[in-house]
Amino acid sequence: MSFVEAQPSEFVLSAIKQSEDTHGLIVRGCNVSDRAIEVTLKLGDAWRRAMRVSLNEEHQGGLISEDNVACFLANPKQVVTLRFEVHR
Fold it and tell me: What torsion do the CA atoms of 18, 35, 5, 73 make, to the nearest 10 degrees?
């Protein structure tokens, strides 16, 4: 398993970095297709909470998550930024 797995392949990861406040992991990607897609992301590390954030890393909403998998809708050509609070 990779550090971060994204499905389907139309969601292309573009950045993985530590959050600015150093308490989380930022994962950014883009839906490169011309249709809305349901995306699932799985991190190699355990995490407590996942949320959608702006490019400034400001909270925009929670995500549906179960068994260390986060699910969300990505519109056509949309860039999505997520924050994962990882267990320490």
Answer: 60
